[in-house]
Design a protein that fits this description.
By secondary structure, the chain is α+β, with helices and mostly antiparallel strands. It contains six helices and 16 strands. The strands form two sheets. It has an eight-stranded mixed beta sheet with strand order 2-3-4-1-13-16-15-14. An eight-stranded mixed beta sheet has the order 6-7-8-5-9-12-11-10, with helices on one face. The longest helix has 13 residues, at 222-234. The termini are far apart.
Length: 307
């Protein structure tokens, strides 16, 4: 089976209020779900995406207050790529710089890209991509001609780059489409979230902390998810049980280059407990945590006056 591209990428942050501000007000993404880390309910879990949180548009965060900065390096995704319509790079360079960010414009694998870090040092990039269409979510100051349309892909820092590339080609159905300056580009047939770059010579060892990626999730369907456990077993990779994440179910595994991957279903999506109009407006908890709502809200960080 081939994957259908990226489902989401999850990273660590430090300040929930700043994380929320940057990704909604500066990058213009929609907060499609505000919940908690199911394994640590005293920590928020934010999901940002397009207007309805379509798989392939989603970036999620665990903002651990008081956490230490991480080190981006081997065993992690090192940079997250966003897609924008063709002709939008000049707008984004100006917008990011006006918000106090240092932006580097360069040619990468024969295309112009903007490289920058968010306000908590998570490495990001913006790339033009006609195939991803246009976004319907256009907050003030951003039109359909500039709005981020979703994930373009990720840059991986593997302990075993060649093995990671082989796995993505042979098991996930990616194809090699380019190589330049020690970066190999792999591509799927997906409309969004279709690019995986692999650095052939990453230097530092990655250490988790804010400003780093926790895992990269790939799309699957409910009817095919269990089959991936057999595929992973054939590749001598141990995987988790199928876990209920409320808005999708997940299988986690660490590929041979040390990077944590996830197989996440498209179904059921983010409108199981909120209407389209109300996505991301209330704190949502899974059934098994709902009875503890008062205790959870008492310890969650306060982000607004009166919250």
């Amino acid at each position: 089976m081939d994957t259908q591209g990226l489902h989401h990428v999850t990273a660590f942050a430090k300040d929930p209020a700043e994380n929320l501000r940057f990704y909604t007000e500066v990058l213009g993404l929609r907060l499609v779900k505000k919940t908690v880390n199911f394994d640590d309910p005293a920590t928020y879990h934010f999901y940002f995406g397009n207007q309805n949180g379509e798989p392939g548009t989603i970036i999620t965060f665990f903002p651990f207050q008081g956490s230490r900065p991480g080190t981006v390096g081997k065993g992690q995704a090192g940079r997250i790529y966003f897609s924008v319509p063709k002709g939008a790079l000049a707008f984004w360079k100006r917008r990011l710089e006006e918000n106090g960010l240092s932006v580097k414009k360069q040619i990468m694998l024969s295309e112009q890209v903007l490289l920058f870090n968010d306000t908590e040092d998570l490495p990001l990039a913006i790339m033009e991509d006609e195939r991803s269409g246009q976004s319907e979510w256009t907050p003030p100051g951003i039109t359909e001609k500039e709005a981020i349309t979703g994930m373009r892909g990720v840059l991986l820092y593997s302990y075993r780059p060649e093995a990671t590339i082989q796995f993505l080609i042979e098991r996930f159905g990616y194809s090699k489409t380019g190589e330049e300056h020690q970066i190999v580009r792999l591509q799927s047939e997906a409309r969004i979230g279709h690019i995986i770059d692999v650095d052939l010579a990453p230097k530092e060892t990655g250490i988790g902390g804010y400003g780093t990626v926790h895992h990269v999730a790939f799309r699957t369907s409910e009817k095919e998810q269990a089959k991936w456990k057999d595929i992973l077993a054939d590749s001598h990779l141990a995987s988790s049980d199928i876990l209920d994440r409320s808005y999708f179910t997940s299988i986690y595994f660490r590929e041979s280059g040390g990077i944590l991957f996830e197989m996440a279903t498209d179904e059921p999506g983010f409108m199981t407990d909120e209407s389209f109009e109300n996505l991301g407006t209330e704190l949502k908890l899974p059934e098994w945590l709902e009875e503890h709502r008062s205790q959870i809200t008492a310890v969650l960080p306060k982000m607004e006056k009166g919250e």
